[in-house]
Write a structure and sequence with these properties.
With 449 residues, the chain is mainly α. It is built from 17 helices and 5 strands. The longest helix is centred in the last third of the chain and has 41 residues. It is globular and about 90 Å long.
């Protein structure tokens, strides 16, 4: 039964939401922006025969292209202007973040604060255009080499004009998606890039479930297997929620200190460290980096040399090479992104400046070494959790021909982004409630005076 305190908290949230006009505007902006994105996934590239394209793509839907099509919300199978989604921007972000660890000039920009951040963002978008041009050219060449069972090409008139228009359309569509994601982040609720990817996945859930039940209806898959998959999906959701909320709390002690004429007593707090500090970043980054070589290899396999066809087979969904690369990239980005978002030395210095210390650990260098030890162990657990969550369901999906939506990677992204979205909505509500309390307190003080 729901307790009285929970009912009161729910009523307070509902009353606060009914009066939070700013939050309503942000939510409506987010919804409308995501609707615009979904509409863009149905605007096709010029010069493509849709029937031949659908026939060709159906032969590759069970491969790795099916997974990227799922991330793009079906835009890749329809070859629309949003076919590449936001992945070129993610790839550019990865390259520049890696560059900050190697190139001194980029590392110096990172330390310049807001001005340096704007320059890095500008360089990221310029690199996004370059990556999109390369991927767009690969897609155009691959489309020209595609043909249906009757031998008719998927491109109506293969020529330089088609390649040029394809590149321009994909660059324009990708940069619009990047701009739309930035607008959602600044003027809406939640992280725009993550929400765009999540909406693409959610849009495929009804068709994926229908496809799974259709396999059961025609006898290609038993009802027991379908029930096992649904139970597995629910179990994965429970595990994701449990792990993403789990924390390793480090107790921080603050000694007695004098503030003015008052002596403050000793206090204790805690430093929360998540078991999976990187969230959904490693799987998204790994998928983004695998997109370019896999797309080119799959689309060039029909007319390319024999080694391209062999590489395309090795990079097929569920193949050992693909799984090994995917697992390696997940582990790599788990450690890399943890090093980016958490600096033990800076955290130890901040604790020392404010008089805080970890019980039994000397402030300064020893504290930094202890925090580095703890975060390394947590990253190992988080990397193992992400790798297991993303690889094992992929094996089942490749063996049973189940839609990609039921995989661990997609469930992780959807659940994690949904949790972050709900947390941000609650933060806006709490901020609004505090603002209302401060206004009431000011009015009471005025009346007393």
């Amino acid at each position: 039964m729901v307790s009285l305190a929970e009912k009161m908290a729910a009523n307070m949230d509902m009353s606060a939401f009914s009066k939070a006009d700013e939050l309503k505007r942000r939510l409506w902006f987010t919804i409308l922006a995501l609707i615009v994105f979904r509409l863009g996934t149905f605007i096709p590239l010029p010069g493509i025969d849709p029937q031949i394209l659908s026939e060709v793509f159906s032969r590759h839907s069970g491969g790795i292209l099916g997974m990227f099509n799922m991330f793009s919300g079906g835009a890749l199978s329809r070859m629309t202007i949003f076919a590449l989604n936001i992945f070129p921007y993610i790839s550019a972000s990865i390259i520049l973040q890696l560059g900050q660890s190697v190139i001194p000039s980029l590392a110096a920009l990172k330390k310049e604060g807001e001005a340096g951040h704007r320059k890095i963002t500008h360089y990221t978008k310029m690199l996004t255009v370059l990556i999109t041009v390369i991927q767009g050219y690969g897609i155009a060449v691959g489309l020209e080499s595609m043909s249906g069972q009757t031998g008719v090409s998927a491109v109506v008139i293969p020529s330089f004009v088609f390649r040029f228009t394809t590149i321009i359309s994909l660059v324009g569509g990708t940069m619009f998606v990047v701009w739309l994601g930035d607008q959602i982040t600044s003027r809406g609720v939640g992280n725009g890039s993550s929400l765009i990817i999540t909406v693409g996945i959610i849009a495929n859930i009804p068709s994926a479930l229908a496809q799974t039940f259709e396999l059961g209806r025609i006898g290609s898959m038993s009802l027991g297997v379908i029930a096992m998959l649904l139970v597995m999906a629910l179990a994965l959701i429970y595990v994701i929620v449990f792990v993403e909320r789990a924390q390793r709390k480090i107790i921080i002690q603050y000694p007695k200190r004098q503030m003015g004429m008052r002596m403050m007593s000793a206090e204790s707090s805690h430093l929360p460290l998540k078991i999976n500090p990187t969230g959904v970043i490693p799987p998204i980054f790994a998928s983004s980096l695998l997109l370019l070589p896999i797309t080119v290899a799959n689309m060039s396999a029909q007319s390319g040399p024999s080694w391209v066809q062999t590489l395309s087979q090795w990079l097929g969904h569920g193949q050992p090479l693909y799984l090994a690369l995917y697992a390696f990239l997940i582990v790599f980005f788990s450690f890399f992104y943890t090093a980016v978002v958490f600096n033990p030395e800076d955290t130890a210095d901040n604790l020392k400046k404010h008089g805080g210390f970890v019980a039994g650990i000397r402030p300064g260098k020893n504290t930094a070494e202890y925090l580095d030890y703890v975060i390394t162990r947590l990253t190992v657990v988080g990397a193992a959790y992400l790798t297991t969550l993303c690889i094992l369901p992929e094996l089942l999906i490749s063996k049973l021909s189940v839609p990609f939506v039921l995989g661990g990677t997609t469930l992780l992204i959807v659940v994690q982004v949904t949790m972050d979205f709900v947390t941000q909505v609650q933060s806006h509500l709490i901020a609004y409630q505090y603002e209302g309390l401060l206004k009431k307190a000011a009015l009471v003080n005025k009346k007393r005076k």
